TrEMBL record:
Entry-linked Pfam families: Transglut_core
InterPro entries, per the entry: Papain-like_cys_pep_sf, Transglutaminase-like
Official protein name in the record: Transglutaminase domain-containing protein
Residue stretches making up the Transglutaminase-like domain: 92-146
Length: 272
């Protein structure tokens, strides 16, 4: 097991092998320019339902692999990915799909990048909403980009998110444990899924993403299901404290070593 995590190369879900390279040619060389067209490639299920799409079109929401998603995109419209699709020609997905495709395109162009799981504060005042973004390395600084919403009229600085705009799962967990945030204000919009357990879930998803495994937003493993049901205790909270600390320190050796913990590692059944 090497300690180096290479964020310039694909992980199990972010490869683009076998996809027509012509379709993948970027319209711009800068990272934000590479990501910008992705906004017009996916559509959220709530936005897709009024279009009357056939039921099988919604199955793409469950796909983890970027190459499969791109093949679906090209089947609907063979134009390069830099071409904006009409809503009915977009693939149904989530913020995680936008973030992973943005990451895959950046890596394909030699840019160090990775998706992050956490919470955005610019969707609803006073709330931190479950969300995925992409970040790329600019010198020694990670720049966070909301690939899904680039160009939209939202309060956040979407091409270079500020610390107050987006918190990773680990950052949110640490803030919650320090008493700096109200855990009940963190959750999934349009659902009853709010509270500290939602923070703990995204802390684990973000650790997985740092290890180049980007789960679906509802994937559960280890003790996550018990955490959502309020059946875990202080020992699990302490483990999450360690997750938050290691992710914040961002040392690849520590990030990879902690991920080997049986309660933290994504099972092979979810890596497909």
């Amino acid at each position: 097991m090497t300690g180096v995590i290479d964020y310039t190369s694909p992980g199990p879900f972010t490869g683009l092998d076998g996809v027509d390279p012509v379709a993948l040619e970027p319209a711009a060389a800068d990272p934000v320019g590479i990501c910008r067209p992705v906004r017009y490639l996916f559509i959220q299920p709530t936005d897709a339902r009024p279009l009357g799409l056939p039921a099988p079109r919604f199955d793409s929401n469950q796909i983890r692999r970027v190459d499969e998603l791109v093949r679906l995109l090209l089947a609907l419209d063979p134009a390069p990915l830099t071409t904006a699709r009409e809503p009915d020609r977009r693939v149904v997905g989530t913020c995680r799909h936008f973030a992973t495709l943005g990451c895959a395109l950046l890596r394909r162009n030699g840019i160090t990048a990775r998706p992050r799981a956490g919470f955005a504060t610019y969707f609803e005042p006073g709330k931190a909403v479950d969300h995925w973004i992409t970040e790329y390395l600019d010198g020694d600084r990670w720049v966070r980009v909301d690939v899904e919403h680039l160009g939209k009229d939202l309060p956040g600085r979407l091409h270079d998110l500020r610390p107050e705009d987006f918190l990773t799962g680990g950052e949110a967990w640490s803030a919650y444990r320090r008493g700096e945030v109200d855990g009940s204000r963190f959750g999934v919009v349009g659902t009853e899924n709010w509270g500290p357990a939602e923070i703990s879930g995204n802390a684990l998803r973000d650790l997985a993403a740092l290890n180049k495994i980007e789960p679906l937003p509802w994937d559960e493993w280890g003790r996550m299901t018990d955490a959502y049901a309020g059946k875990t205790g202080e020992d699990y909270d302490v483990l999450l404290d360690e997750v938050a600390t290691v992710c914040a320190e961002d040392d690849p050796v520590s990030v990879r070593a902690l991920y080997q913990h049986e309660d933290l590692r994504v099972p092979e059944s979810l890596i497909r």
